[in-house]
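A sample copied in:

***
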Amino acid sequence: MASSSFSSSAILILSFLTLCFGISFGQLSTNYYSRSCPDLFPTVKYAVHSAIARETRMGASLLRLFFHDCFVNGCDGSILLDDTSSFTGEKNAIPNRNSARGFDVVDNIKSSVEKVCPGVVSCADVLAITARDSVAILGGPSWNVKLGRRDARTTSQSAANNGIPPPTSNLNNLISRFQSLGLSTKDMVALSGSHTIGQARCTTFRARVYNETNIDDSLAETRQGNCPRASGVGDNNLAPLDLQSPTFFDNSYFKNLVNRKGLLHSDQQLFNGGSTDALVRTYSNSPGTFSADFTAAMIKMGDISPLTGSNGEIRKNCRRVN
């Protein structure tokens, strides 16, 4: 009887703590900071909105940081760490070198958050909220972000080199990599829709616009005009991933694929006579279906191997461990 009473009391206490303070005891929660940092969401949104107002492309860059963080040892803020004498970080890994950007913006957002609730919110969670806000500000869907991640104390350049699918990936490569992270083929196709915003460097699409045949002739010709055939010349010249609406989050990316206008090899692989053709066509015709599947996949991606409880730390500066 006493044991039963104790158990009931313990459950009530845990429920009270979870409700009032957002304590999730190892699980992520949408209300994790509801008491410890009530001004978190408006603080982050204001800073993200300001950054995008200065440069529209920044929204895509911030979203990409979250992707690249989660795909390397989970969503733990490790992509934000600068190199140290004890480890070589992810910033100069092949998928990120000369392309991952927005670190200064994340610094500014973290600084703003530290002013309203110092030492409370992780850099990993800042990235998750920033990704959501970037999508919403650029006209895309919004969702309730699950929070409670802690920050990694180390990182790995080799893990980044091996963990992030390159733009040369074929469909089987993409499906396999996403499945290894617990993401389905549908998740993969929906998440690829993030390429409705942002830019790509010539070096990532040169081979496609010069050598591949499953590409719209006018697109290939247009992109060749800003991407010389010779490697080493114009490598960093930029082109929009979505020719139709490069600064607006919509389903145009999938319409492009149906018309053989995917900029990257890995993009067009989603609509090239394979198993994902039907889903691409569905998303091209139904923006609502795409938005629903994209938000579900973003939440699922945010659940990849988070550090919780006593693991990791809450970094004061996202660039270095405490």
